[in-house]
Specification:
This protein is of the alpha+beta class. The chain has one domain: Gcn5-related N-acetyltransferase (GNAT) (Aminopeptidase, 3-Layer(aba) Sandwich). The protein has 4 helices and 7 strands, in the order βααβββαβαββ. The chain has a 7-stranded mixed β-sheet, with helices on both faces. The longest helix is centred in the middle third of the chain and has 15 residues. The radius of gyration is 16 Å and the shape is globular. The structure holds coenzyme A. The site of coenzyme A has 20 residues, from strand 4, helix 3 and helix 4.
Length: 195
């Protein structure tokens, strides 16, 4: 009878920032987002013209995961997703991604893009399971390590496998940082076939 409490997914708020930044530094030691990047993202996450949706996984007051989506002009971008190491393999990454895809549907996005380090096979497997397909590379996207990003895309009109129903409302323009150093959406070098 000692089941650990299961994490509740809820909107990320400013008071979550310290815990999120701590997790961010642990999970992305080479290219962690700065506090300013998170603040800027959250500034676009509320109100009728919101273009972002950020969620946290709250387990009895401890933040054990977080994820964010940007949506502009029919295209959504998975900005970030992270799960505390001691929770890896428990399905939380899948729950967070499911939540982002629900919001992409609510934003009426016809496709969802993301960048992932070419050496991050674990995350790539998760994305593949959710119907994301490789469409190209962004050279040196992750700095200062100069690691390439694999760009993956999911067509929201041809909904495969693990897809959820639509959720809350959302809206229109403007995108943001994305993981790595480049802009979140667009400018993809689709010169590779990847895999
Ligand atoms: C990538 C990341 C978010 C995945 O989170 P996660 O919670 O481990 O993801 P899941 O548990 O949903 O799925 C991961 C694996 O665990 C398996 N799994 C899911 N539920 C499971 C369960 N109950 N028991 C055992 N294994 C399980 C999944 O099948 C999956 O296996 P796979 O390797 O065959 O795909 C996490 O590893 C992470 O935070 N990494 C560091 C940050 C990062 O790289 N983020 C992505 C940036 S693009």
């Amino acid at each position: 009878m000692s089941e650990p409490p299961s994490a509740v997914l809820r909107e990320m708020r400013w008071w979550d920032m310290d815990a999120v930044l701590e997790l961010e530094d642990e999970l992305f030691p080479e290219d962690a987002w700065s506090p300013g990047m998170f603040w800027s993202e959250l500034a676009h996450a509320r109100g009728p013209y919101a273009t972002r949706r950020y969620v946290v996984a709250d387990e009895g007051g401890r933040i054990v995961g977080y994820a964010g989506l940007a949506a502009v002009g029919g295209v959504a971008d998975v900005q970030t997703i992270g799960v505390a190491r001691d929770h890896w393999g428990g399905g939380l990454g899948a729950r967070l991604l499911t939540e982002l895809l629900r919001h992409a549907t609510a934003f009426e996005s016809s496709e969802v893009l993301l960048e992932v380090r070419v050496d991050n096979t674990r995350a790539q497997r998760l994305y593949t399971r959710f119907g994301f397909e490789p469409i190209g590379f962004r050279k040196g996207y992750y700095q200062p390590g100069n690691v390439d990003a694999l760009v993956m895309r999911r067509d929201m009109k041809e909904t495969p496998g693990e897809t959820p129903p639509a959720a809350e409302p959302g809206a229109a323009p403007e995108t943001g940082p994305g993981r790595g150093t480049g802009p979140g959406t667009g400018g993809t070098d689709t010169d590779g076939s990847a895999g």
